[in-house]
């Protein structure tokens, strides 16, 4: 495994900065933004059963003569428009659209890839517009729900957020099967394991405006950045567990860190590899189930062609989109795909490729699934 480039903390990769052979050119950034996935493994999500159904959308000709509706719910105000240079950044719907931060202290390696880098076909400014146009060309019935919910996660400002993939994946593992408050507390303790300590008579410059916390024995703790993969690998499992992690989660995070530290997982691979290769690589990591990885691809990497048939909200939304009575299907009970078979969902979604992520997002909205929970 040969090293192609070594990046300092906070350096950023995007699809435009990777050469024809995958060799990166990088820009310096001081930002360490991240997107955390919900990370609840492959469990079906429990969306609200009593939420109001969408209004104002008619069904397909083959559907029973029953009207579905799209509810008018206030959407999130659009974020500020990025600088013109960011808007012009090339992107490809078949690859990662988010700029990726290289985890601190790690490097990019020439790890074997079964897929090749494609040539960007559009820009940050035009990606969402082109995706919506494609969806409407496939099925104009989507227009009312698209108009009601303009806050899709592929707006130019969303694509300007720099993602640290290691931090996002660790946060997802921490958040598996625990409440949001518990996950936040554990993550804070996890980061504090790597804090720098000094005596109280030593001036320590804190990150931001907050003062350093004073701990036991007069020690002052400098707020720590998220640990690098190498730092996590160097810490033993029992110490990691003191942050409130279970034995398995500590092992999962340690194993994930080892893959980033060795270069088996890297920002470059996550940026340029195909959806299928990224899925295969991440699902092979202990602690990352298929649903968790799919949500990371969508909300973290901003990949445009993800479609999660195992998501309960998608199943319900697809059934409603096809004109089926979801309440009756629920009452019948059944197996994992009680609302619609996986085969039918894949066939219906196929024409919306390469923008199935956006189609899935609107399908969630069709059934009023709380997508904010998945992005928390």
Automatic annotation (TrEMBL):
Keywords: DNA damage, DNA repair. Residues 56-68 have a biased composition (Basic residues). SMART domains: ENDO3c. Residues 37-55 have a biased composition (Basic and acidic residues). GO terms for cellular component: nucleus; protein-DNA complex. Pfam families: HhH-GPD (PF00730). Signal peptide: none annotated. The keyword Isomerase does not apply. Belongs to the alkylbase DNA glycosidase AlkA family. This is HhH-GPD domain-containing protein.
């Amino acid at each position: 495994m040969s090293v192609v480039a070594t990046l300092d903390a906070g350096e950023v990769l995007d699809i435009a900065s990777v050469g024809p052979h995958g060799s990166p050119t990088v820009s310096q950034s001081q930002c360490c933004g991240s997107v955390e996935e919900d990370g609840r493994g492959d469990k079906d999500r429990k969306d609200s059963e009593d939420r109001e159904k969408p209004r104002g959308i008619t069904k397909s000709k083959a559907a029973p003569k029953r009207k579905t509706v799209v509810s008018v719910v206030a959407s999130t105000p659009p974020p500020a428009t990025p600088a013109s240079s960011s808007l012009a950044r090339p992107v490809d719907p078949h690859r990662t659209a988010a700029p990726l931060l290289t985890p601190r202290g790690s490097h990019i390696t020439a790890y074997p890839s079964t897929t090749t880098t494609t040539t960007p076909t559009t820009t940050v400014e035009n990606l969402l517009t082109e995706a919506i146009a494609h969806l409407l060309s496939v099925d104009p019935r989507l227009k009312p729900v698209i108009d009601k919910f303009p806050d899709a996660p592929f707006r130019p400002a969303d694509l300007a957020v720099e993602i640290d993939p290691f931090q996002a994946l660790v946060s997802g593992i921490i958040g598996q099967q625990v409440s949001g408050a518990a996950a936040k507390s554990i993550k804070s303790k996890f980061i504090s394991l790597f804090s720098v300590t000094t005596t109280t008579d030593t001036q320590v410059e804190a990150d931001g405006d907050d003062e350093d916390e004073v701990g036991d024995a007069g020690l002052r703790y400098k707020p720590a950045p998220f640990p690098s993969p190498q730092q996590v690998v160097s810490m033993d499992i029992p110490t990691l567990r003191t942050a409130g992690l279970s034995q398995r989660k500590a092992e999962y995070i340690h194993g994930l860190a080892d893959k980033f530290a060795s270069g088996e997982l890297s920002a470059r691979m996550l940026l340029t590899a195909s959806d299928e290769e990224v899925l295969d690589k991440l699902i092979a990591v202990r602690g990352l189930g298929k649903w968790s990885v799919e949500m990371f691809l969508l909300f973290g990497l901003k990949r445009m062609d993800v479609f999660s048939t195992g998501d309960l909200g998608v199943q319900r939304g697809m059934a409603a989109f096809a004109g089926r009575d979801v309440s009756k299907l629920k009452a019948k009970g059944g197996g994992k795909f009680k609302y619609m078979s996986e085969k039918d969902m894949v066939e219906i979604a196929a024409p919306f490729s390469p923008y199935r992520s956006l189609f899935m997002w609107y399908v969630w909205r069709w059934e009023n699934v709380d997508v904010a929970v998945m992005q928390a």
